Amino acid sequence: MRAPPQSRRTMTEIPAPGRPIRRLNLEWLGVAPFIIFAVMFLILPTLYLVSAAFVGRDGQLTFDNIAGLFTDQILAAYWISIRISATSAGIGAIAGLAITLAIIRGRLPDALRSAIMTFSGVASNFAGVPLAFAFISTLGRLGLVTIILKALFDIDIYRAGFNILSFWGLTLTYLYFQIPLMILMIAPAVDGLKREWSEAAQTLGASSWQFWRHVGFPILWPSFLGTLSLLFANAFGAIATAYALTGSSLNIVPILLYAQIRGDALQNPGLGAALALGMIVITACANIIYLVISARAERWMR
Amino acid sequence: MKPNKLWAWIVFGIGAAYFLVPLIATFEFSLKMRRGYYSFDSYASVFSDPRFQTTFGYSTLIGLFAIVVGILVVVPAVYFVRLRLPHLRPLMEFITLLPLIIPAIVLVYGYIRLYNSSSIIPFTGSALGTDVLLTCAYVTLALPYMYRAVDTGMRAIDIKTLTEAAQIMGADTARIITSIILPNILVAVLSGAFLTFAIVIGEFTIASLLNRPAFGPYLQNIGANRAYEPSALAIISFIITWGAMGMIQLLARFAPRTSARTD
Amino acid sequence: MSDEHFLRVENLTKTYGTTTVVKGVSFDFAKGEFISLLGPSGCGKTTILRMIAGFETPSRGSITVDGENITAIPPNQRRLGMVFQAYALFPNLNVGDNIAFGLKVAGIGRDERRTRVEEMLKLIGLPGYDKRFPYELSGGQQQRVALARAIAPRPRLLLLDEPLSALDAKIRVSLRQEIRAIQRELGITTVFVTHDQEEALSISDRIVVMNAGDIEQLGTPHDIYNRPATRFAATFVGQLNTLPARISDAAAGQANLGGRTITLPGLPSGIVNGAEIGLAIRPEMLSPVPRAESDISLDGTIHDVSFLGSVVRLRVDLQGTMVNVDTFNDQSAVPPSRGDAVAVHMASRDLMILPR
């Protein structure tokens, strides 16, 4: 970070030919820690796992690990993970958009708006183990809502088939951080919808629905998709909430991988790497789908 | 002529119910440790647990280190990329997006396999090495948030003009960063710091798989073995997160603004 | 009959809480007129336009277009066209789709839409631009597309909300001429909001000069400029010099101006001897050389000379009162310089009497 005292000298002298290179060095010196860090803790570990997925116990190139993913148990895990992630991302995105539209376009009081934004910041980070505790206290067998529904309305949600340890239980729990995340990410885009656009549409005879159909939603669409893919990846990789909620009873991919790493199951490092590779491929796919669709949708943007 | 605001209030009401009921339920549950009446016994039990104190202290310490390392890694990089290497910007954006796409459990699995005790850099070979690895893992987790906070901060103050003004007056790069840039993006950096803290403090997956005595695994352990303390811990965690976010909100009021914004 | 009272605004009032921003404004315009609402920011002109468009609800009063009272009709059923200051083109639609938007929501068929879009693009001088996106156009081009979009559905009334103020000076002048030409061609009644008096004077059939929520004067550009009804109208529109004078003989219409006695035509009644008045006169009505109608001459010194192109503006010190004197540029003459003594000539019939 030290600059050579040269910089002052060159004010009076003809710049030495070596000076531009010196400056370049300083710039790269500033960026270097970031690059090294990214390589060591993001790129290399990922690439290592990806390559390990194709190496057998004997050190030879093999597709056995990938083939090993195609068992009923593992496929079922992927399927339920995808379903939970897609459902919680989809509902979270729609609900988050609805709330954002309500506070910004529905002109709720400003104080309410800033309260919701702050709360969203908190709730989107309130994931993991404590969130699981909160939902057990709410919708668990002894949860407040469960008890109140039984006592006041004589509705036993557990007898009706609900279980906090199930697909819908987990989805409902994930929404607690998915919706706020959506609100935080989509609010700038909704703010960017100019009032003049809807006014112009109105003077041209468009109903409110026609405005949203032809102008409002198409403009929000790329941001919506981008956030949707992030929400999907967010849920797909989440493990702490599920683990604290269900132990290892719910068979989702991260829990399977967790058990594999802990050495509780499978006992096959190559298969573990293949599991991880599968997760990367799926979250990457979600993002590639987003990039492709938004590139088409964004041809009107700079 | 004015759009009917009723729908907005209905949406808000449903949302508020969904988000507030679990908090109320958790709080209510945390008070039920004694039969028949409400008490704060579960909180007393939590606070008097020595493991609570040690794991919370440990996670706080790791969090602080992660904040420092995060600042050292991100601030110079963002500064130079904004100032002189704008062609690296897309790469930075891409790299800082990766932690949101690659699941944490995958990353930590990579660390365990790559940096095991028989590798060139045997992070997991010693307790201290593992602590360093955990810190770096947390920096990685918080990278997207730290990057965006710092980047937004630098955009708001137009660092290019500030740097050029300082250079004209003869300041060198070290002085520019320490006495011009840092004070002006302090609020942004602190926002990133509090966000890092909020993410790190209760983190479970990485700490658990690296076998470190952190707050997250402790929470999980309590959850599996106790009845009322988990609710108390959930409320405490919520308050900690709220505190970190509240600090960001508070800080935002002190954020410097210049009239000229280049982008 | 309704052609003469095509746009009729009666006692229009808008109150926010305790502040009244539009105070019972009434006017009445014929079909095909180009009307400007002119005034400083905050005078209520935009609020009036937004009430006509339907984005603001009047607290009192009514708006009638072509015999139909539209006061309570929602904006999307008023069949008006509007152009906004910041263009407000839909960024996700190309130029053709922007122009066709109003036709599409009205349920007009694809072929007819295409024909109309082509017609409109030709009208605004951008043929072949239909596949471009708004961000690919310059500000002036975007505003022309916005105009085309507003008039494509053949609205009854065209509302222009400071459509030129976001543009460069040169484009501003050429586009305003274009807007006027298109408006004449289509014969569409137009309400134009502006704070730029030159803009209003140059393109309007009639101007409504507004201040503090009230109409100061309503008239043709010629009337407004040459016979301002109020002090505000006189000072807001055009440049104005004010000379202090004292009434010496009210009955004879005589006043004392710089030590001379002058006769003022049309002295308002109620002015008594000794009253201090202001005499206002446009810079171009003052001259350093006597003209045929000149009957007053005052001596002064040139304080400053600004060369404005076709006009040379002299700032002249007339015994302590600074006035601007506009003369036409003359290539062959030696330009006047600072400190020169000069006689300023004027005609008493050009003096406007302003109450002090």
TrEMBL record, chain B:
Principal subcellular localization: membrane
Domain of life: Bacteria
A GO CC annotation given for this chain: plasma membrane
Subcellular location: Cell inner membrane; Cell membrane
GO BP terms, alphabetized: transmembrane transport
Domain ABC transmembrane type-1, chain residue ranges per copy: 56-251
A Pfam family this chain is assigned to: BPD_transp_1
Keyword Cytoplasm on entry: no
Key words of the record: Cell inner membrane, Cell membrane, Membrane, Transmembrane, Transmembrane helix, Transport
Keyword Transmembrane helix attributed: yes
Protein topology in the membrane: Multi-pass membrane protein
Record Gene3D superfamilies: MetI-like
Transmembrane segments: 7-27, 56-79, 91-112, 132-150, 185-210, 230-252
Residue ranges the record marks as coiled coil: none
PANTHER family assigned: INNER MEMBRANE ABC TRANSPORTER PERMEASE PROTEIN YDCV (PTHR43357)
Similarity annotation: Belongs to the binding-protein-dependent transport system permease family.
Protein's name according to its UniProt entry: ABC transporter permease
Organism the protein comes from: Devosia ureilytica
Automatic annotation (TrEMBL), chain C:
ABC transporter domain span: 7-237
A Gene Ontology BP annotation from the UniProt entry: quaternary ammonium group transport
Keyword terms of this UniProt record: ATP-binding, Nucleotide-binding, Transport
SMART domains documented for this protein: AAA
Keyword Repeat: no
Domain of life: Bacteria
One GO CC term on file: ATP-binding cassette (ABC) transporter complex
Matches recorded under Pfam families: ABC_tran, TOBE_2
GO MF, one annotated term: ATP binding
Residues spanning the membrane: none
InterPro entries cross-referenced by the UniProt entry: AAA+_ATPase, ABC_SmlMolc_Importer, ABC_transporter-like_ATP-bd, ABC_transporter-like_CS, Mo/tungstate-bd_C_term_dom, P-loop_NTPase, Transp-assoc_OB_typ2
Family recorded in the similarity comment: Belongs to the ABC transporter superfamily.
Name by which UniProt lists this protein: ABC transporter ATP-binding protein
Organism of derivation: Devosia ureilytica
Lineage: Bacteria, Pseudomonadati, Pseudomonadota, Alphaproteobacteria, Hyphomicrobiales
